[in-house]
Design a protein that fits this description.
There is one protein chain. This protein is an alpha+beta fold. It folds into 2 domains: 9-57, no CATH class; 61-121, no CATH class. 7% of the residues are buried. The radius of gyration is 20 Å and the shape is flat. It has helices spanning 9-28, 32-41, 48-57; strands spanning 61-66, 77-83, 92-96, 102-107, 109-110, 117-121. Helices cover 31% and strands 24% of the residues.
Amino acid sequence: MPDGYEASEAQKAQKLRFKQATYYAKSVIQNEEIKAAYTAKAKKGASAYNVAMKDFMTPPEFYGVQLDQYTGAIGDVLIFEFQDILELTYVKVFIYDAEGVLLEEGEAVQNAIFKLNWQYTTTVANSTLVF
């Protein structure tokens, strides 16, 4: 940076995020199984390290949630669709009522066949649906 130049908060945040991505990439490629997964995703000229950096810096894409089966009853199924550079390993679901009070939270389960989909079965009734 030039003398007298103060980085903006956004620039500082981006620099920190890049540093975190560097640490992440260096650490995950130490695991041969994870390194192989990143290597398999690498395009010509890229390394597992490059793909791991990109994976850290790029959030998963959220395509939406299927609410057509959700009535607010216990046992309703919500289906979420995501895509990431590598498969996601964890999806946590939070359900709030109309007033913003947390009703329930829990882990979604990945669909064994269609890996982009994650399913969550509700455990608490929600009488104040808002879509």
